[in-house]
Specification:
Layout: H1 5-8, H2 24-37, H3 39-42, H4 51-54, H5 70-79, H6 101-112, H7 133-143, H8 145-148, E1 155-156, E2 162-163, H9 171-180, H10 195-210, H11 224-250
Helix pairs in contact: 2-6, 5-6, 5-9, 7-10, 9-10
Length: 251
């Protein structure tokens, strides 16, 4: 769960700093799953593993401590398939999760039982009915667009990393990413961006993801770059082919 390191070093607000109230059976299931799939990198007691033991001396490939990361970080990393990590690299990519929803919940509850941390958002947290779309757009452009671009399609960062596209992304994953700051992403706790503002941002992202493309194919939603490339490669190529065909026919 290497992408959890940012959450481990952040301070949760009082509203986020919740301990687990899971049942003993759920915690036992989480303990078994953790020891089988996570402890080799993060330690039997969530204490972390030195870099030399995991990444052959590369400090970027160590297994960080998970104490205090909270259920939200575990839910985000595991349910998006980023953890357990299949191969080390500059960035851990999303993929198919190795666990079902019940197993993810058990892992999250087990990790959260060690220390307070950001909690998984509730249905009330994710209810965007009364959220302001205009405010969400302003907040997104101010805090998110620099990395994820204005259309939430992602973009390149430094040192071979990138900000992933937020299309499609589940509302709970967007909330959890803001709370925990996975990998290169900064932490936006409830002091930085309050819950109502988080709802507004989620509503805005859902709106732009659902918006139709006037030209038909979205072409990555990056505007004239992809559109111009399409014209030059397909359009110009078709004109050349047509000219050759007409010339050959005239002979």
């Amino acid at each position: 769960m290497g992408g959890l390191y940012a959450a481990a070093g952040s301070l949760a607000s009082p509203a986020q700093a919740e301990t687990s109230e899971a049942s003993p059976a759920l915690l036992e299931e989480g303990s078994v799953l953790y020891k089988e799939g996570c402890s080799s990198c993060h330690g039997l007691n969530l204490e972390g593993v030195p870099a030399d033991s995991v990444g052959k001396g590369n400090p970027k490939q160590n297994g960080p401590s998970l104490i205090g990361v909270g259920a939200a970080a575990v839910d985000f990393q595991v349910s998006t398939g980023r953890m357990p990590v299949g191969a080390t690299g500059q960035q851990v990519v999303a993929g198919r999760s190795s666990y079902n929803e019940e197993e993810v919940a058990a892992l999250a509850a087990y990790v959260a039982s060690f220390a307070p941390g950001p909690a998984i958002p509730s249905e009330e947290d994710l209810d965007t009915t009364d959220a302001s779309l205009a405010e969400g757009g302003e907040l997104f452009r101010t805090n998110c667009a620099q990395c994820h671009n204005f259309a939430a399609q992602g973009g390149a960062l430094s040192n071979g990393t990138y900000a992933p596209a937020i299309d499609p992304s589940r509302p709970d994953h967007i909330w959890e990413a803001m709370l925990t700051g996975p990998q290169s992403m900064p932490v936006f706790n409830d002091t930085t961006i309050n819950p109502d503002e988080k709802k507004a941002i989620i509503k805005y992202i859902q709106n732009i993801n659902a918006a139709p493309s006037p030209g038909g194919a979205p072409l990555g939603t990056v505007g004239p770059v992809s559109e111009g490339l399409l014209i030059w490669t397909v359009g110009l190529g078709a004109l050349i082919a047509c000219s050759v065909w007409l010339g050959a026919k005239a002979k």
